[in-house]
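haha ok so turns out i had the wrong file open the whole time. this is the CORRECT one, sorry everyone. sequence first:
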Amino acid sequence: MKSLIELVAEIVSSHASNTTMTTEQLVQELQTVHSALKNLEQGLNAVEFNESVAGDAKDSTISIRQAFRKDEVICMVCQKGGFKTLKKHLTTAHQLTPGQYRKQFGIKSSQKLAAKSFSDARRKAAEERGMTDILAKAREKRMANLKVGKAAAARPAKAAKPVAAAKPVVAAKPAKVKKP
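then structure:
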């Protein structure tokens, strides 16, 4: 039978082969899996185990400043890192919208859920393609449409024509059947 350490190494290496992890995350994963297997070995029930894991999770929370770095974003729910943007990860892994995520962790709406280098690269590419001019024209057109809509709303509405009374429906007469 394998020892506890060998089981932990096998589980964590399997998990790490499928997801990108920083060194800190790898160490944290080793500790979590080790404590979970140790608790199972000692016969702790699920409630006691969940309480001990919850206590460990509270100690390992990261700040907003640590989560949003220049070259990567770290998920504050699961502490996985290496993301350029969080939206897809949040919806697939945690079934959260960006708004729910912001609310849960008190993140301002002005804070982008993407790495700064990623946002800067996209902005630069848009400027090179002339997208800033297109965006400015679209904003001007939208503002003009809003002004027209407000002016139309300020005008009094036309009186509706009265609806004529509907004619009563007459039942069809049964067809006569010829006798042979």
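Residues 1-60 form one domain.
again sry for the mixup
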